[in-house]
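Why do we care about 3D structure at all? Because function follows from shape, and shape follows, mostly, from sequence. That is the central idea of this module. The next example makes it concrete: a single protein chain, its amino acid sequence, and then its structure expressed as tokens.
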Amino acid sequence: MEISAGMFSAEDSRRWVQTVLVKPEGVARSYSQTLLLELAPNTDSNSWTTSFSFPPNVVPGSQRVHVAVVGDLLGLSMGGLESLVSLPRGCGEQNFVSFASSVTVLEYLEVLENGPIKARALAVLEEGFRKERSYQRDDGSFSAFGIRDSSGSTWLTAIMLRTFLRAQPYMSAEQGVELQGVVRGAASWLLTHQGPGGAFSEAGHAIHTEMRRCRDDCPATLTAFVVMALLEDPEFARLYKPNITRALDYLKRVVLTTTGNYTLCMMAYALVLEDRPAASRVLAELRLRANYLDGDRWSSSEAPRAEGAWGARSAEVEMVSYVLLALSRNGRIVEGFPLMRWLSQQRNPLGGYGSTQDTVVAIQALAAIAVVVKADAINLTVQVSSSTMRGVSLFRITSTNFQLYHSKEIHADQNVTIDLVLEGKGFAHFQMNVFYNVESARDPTEKLQAGTEAFSLDVEVLEALDDRGDRHHSMVVSICTRVLGTDGITQTGMVLVDVGLLSGFLPLGLAAVDPIRKVETPPGRAVLYLDSGEEP
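And the structure:
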């Protein structure tokens, strides 16, 4: 809203106008549903209905519904490269998501020759390189906080190396020279952490929760990550062939004793880059272990979801993505279509997924299929209507505009139902994003349901008093959190404590003292970075 102030006199007059952002009260919530709109064989039309009901404690006036239609498999993600995941950007791992995703988009656009999107992706890439470079340590390794950490991370260094190598063709000449030193330093450091048996070990702090969950399988998981980084680049695959061979031999030895499906999915993709028969055996083993949901995915996770969660767990997205990458590399594209369909339906309102790692690998997997699925013959009309909107919106998608992001805001002061009609030839992706606030995240007297929460969280807000008991215009916020151990682990990877501030208040006295590694104070918030959360 706009607030104006004026000053008037007989000689002169002045008027000032200031725009003020007015946010609804309560806690922000969102919901997203993605549909793959496709036609049945020998038909030229199809219809769908989707709906959303707001909870009883919704804040009136906070409801927004946004719908989007795009004909490209990556279209929902390419529209928001700069903000695919709703996370602070205070460490190397979280800054990584836009950088890595821009590399995948550039690889994809090499085939499609899309100039405008390519220019945006290049801009994200250049900025991402500068930021990620600052997290490299003097010994060539990378860590979450760079030189402030006591050691580099094998896992993070492998992932950075892999992405930097893929980014090489798109870097400027000046950055390309700098990049050579970066990747060679990272590779040299990694190889110092390879054991005589071929496995790689973690030298630093494992910030990725799945690297803690894998337990006995962790050396194999980490080794698979490093092998991916080295084998995806032909020059490095040749340069470090002896080390790669030892690592691959190790992975083949431990396949039969690997208990975790997460690790097997990583191994399937690592092996397919060099030994397709071995990868096929791993994929066959995964199929035997798989759980199916509507015939559309392979899953191994029995861990419960948090209450109110509508998306898949990040580990599930990662596993499906690596299997899809392995299938596409193995030429088994048709077999991967159900996994592609499931992945495309898990995206959040920003076009990404739940975390950094699942977003990066999922977009890479979808791109591998999108290159094969051509849009040359697409010619569609998508009709969108709603119980809360007047008239009908028509979106036309053809082979010349299939990457165009079509969108519309829908009035939603009550529950919403959306009807879709698809006519023509081809397929499209539809996404409904719902945003709203609730009066309270949870009734303070409500007990947590066993097995549904990863953390406990106790917050106490007190009015600050001086030594004489006089009140000041300030508050003291006390936060206590711990891991509940309900998800199979007693210690997590990195933990973020994101504190929303009341209007008119600023954070005071925040400092990065153990166990807090870093503090950020974006407008209206305070974000605390912890190395991990532990079960007492």
